[in-house]
Amino acid sequence: MSDYDYDLFVIGAGSGGVRASRVSAAYGAKVAVAEEYRVGGTCVIRGCVPKKLLVYGAHFAEDLKDARRFGWNVPDCSFDWAVLRDNVMGDVDRLNGLYTQGLENAGAEIILERATVTGPHEVTLASGRTVTAKYILVATGAHPHVPDFPGSDLGITSNEVFHLDKLPKRIVIAGGGYIANEFAGIFNEFGSRVTLVNRSDVILRGYDQSIRDRLLQISLTKGIDFRFHAEFEKIEKLDDGVRVHLSGQDPMDVDVVLFATGRVPNTMGLGLEAVGVELDAQGAVKVGDDNRSTVDSIYAVGDVTNRVQLTPVAIREGQAFADTIFGDKPHTVDYSCIPSAVFSHPPMAGVGMTEGEARNKLGSVKVYTSDFRAMKNVLAGRHERALYKMICDGITGRVVGLHMIGPDAPEILQAAAVAVKAGLTKDAFDQTVALHPSMAEELVLLK
User: Fold this and answer.
1) Helix axes 355-362, 209-222, angle to 10 degrees
2) pTM for the complete prediction?
3) Which single residue of 15, 57, 158, 265 has CA 20 to 30 Å from 323?
C-alpha cells in the first residue's frame, strides 16, 4: 500500500495537466486532477480554440465579397455576433465534455475544486479536505495581465471577449502581440472600428521584421488604426461606452477596451513559496529541464513556468513528465525550432531563426524570398501580397529559418517546419518538384 492517497496530484486541467494526468494514469499511477473552473484550460475554454473559430467566422467577410468575382450571386449580407458567439461557446462545451471524458476513461479522478499546496506531499482543497500525493504537478497556466491605471477595471481581457452581449462598433485593443493583432483582425472583419494602442512602435516582437512589417502594411490598408508610443492615462465610464485618454492623443469614445498586454503565471495564493518552491520575478515556477521545481516532489509544466507559452509545448512537457516519472522513459523537451503562428488577417507563421537572429549568430547568411499575389486574390481583385522568406546558413546552405505571411500560411508552415527541424538545406527544397498551382510551391521556387 502506498503511503500517500495518490501517486500524482495535478493542479489544473489545461493542456499540460490533462496530458500528464492521462498518460500517468495509463502507466498505472493513481491520479487526481483538481480544476476550479472547467476541464480544458485556457486553450480550449478561453483561448486558441474559440479564437480560431472567430477567425474562421471573420474570414467570411472577405470570402463573401470575393465570391462575386467567381460568379456567385451573393447578396449583401449582415453579421449576427450572437449566433457565432453562442455556436462557439457550444463547441467549447462539447470539448469540455470530451476532455472530461478522456480523463475519466484513463482512470484519473477529477476534483472540481480549487487546490492549494500545503506541504511537499500535501494538497488542501477548497472544501477543507486534505489529501497527500507522492508527486504534485502544478499546471495552473496563466491569466491576462491588466495594466494598473485609473479606470483600467472598465476594460476586458481575452477571457471576457468571447462573451460580449453585442458586437462593439468601436473597440480599442491594447497591446502589440499576437492576441492583440488577432483580435484586431477579427473585429475589423466583423465591421467594428478598431484602434490598436501600443507603447512602442513594434508589433509582434520576436517575429521576422519583414513579415511583421507586411502585416502592419496590410492591416493599415484594411482600415485598422494604430496608435504607437501611446500610454493609457485613464478610462472614464460613459452612458454608452467609455472614454479613453492616451498620452499625446485626443480622447476616444469607444464601446469596449480589450487588454492584450501579456499573461501572468497563475501562482498567486497557491502556497508554493511557503513550502519552498521558488518563483521568478514574474511569479513563474522555476523548474529544471526535467520540470522539477526546487522541491523534489513538486513539478510544473505549461504556462505557469513561463518558458514557452504555447499549448503544444505544454502538452509535450506533460508527456515528458509522465514518461519520465511513471513510464521509465526519461526524456526532456527540445525547445529549439518551435513553429508558431499568428492568426491575423492574413495569417503569419514562422519557424527557426529570424534574419536578424541568424545574422547575429551565424554572421554569414543567405536570404531567399518570394513576394507574390495569391491566384485567388488576383481574380478577386484583392491587391494583398504574400511574402515567403527563407534564411540559410551562408556556408552550409542549411535552412535555419522559414517565415511567411499569406493565406493558409500556418497550414503550409507546419509541414515545412519538419524540413527545417531536420536540418535540410536549400538544395533539398530546390530538388523537390513544385506542386502546381499552389501557394506552397513558392517554397521550392525561392530565389
Assistant:
1) 170
2) 0.95
3) 265
Residue environment code for 225-254, b if the CB has 16+ CB neighbours within 10 A, otherwise e: ebbeebebeebeeeeebbebbbeeeeebeb
Length of the chain: 447
Q: Are 173 and 180 in contact (CB under 8 A)?
A: yes
The strand ranges marked E within 39-128 are 109-111, 115-119, 122-125
Contacts of 48-52 with CB under 8 Å at 24 or more apart are 48/311, 49/91, 49/92, 49/95, 50/88, 50/89, 50/91, 50/92, 50/162, 51/158, 51/162, 51/182, 51/183, 51/186, 51/343, 52/343
Q: Are 439 and 407 in contact (CB under 8 A)?
A: yes
> What b/e string do you get for 291-320 counting C-beta neighbours within 10 Å, with b at 16 or more?
bbbbbebbbbbbbbbbbbbbbebbbbbbbb
* Structural domains of the chain ordered from first start: 6-143+264-325 (3.50.50.60), 152-261 (3.50.50.60), 346-444 (3.30.390.30)
Model pLDDT for residues 139-156, shown as the tens digit of each residue: 999 999 999 999 999 999
Active site residues: 436
On the question of pLDDT at 252 being above 70, the answer is yes
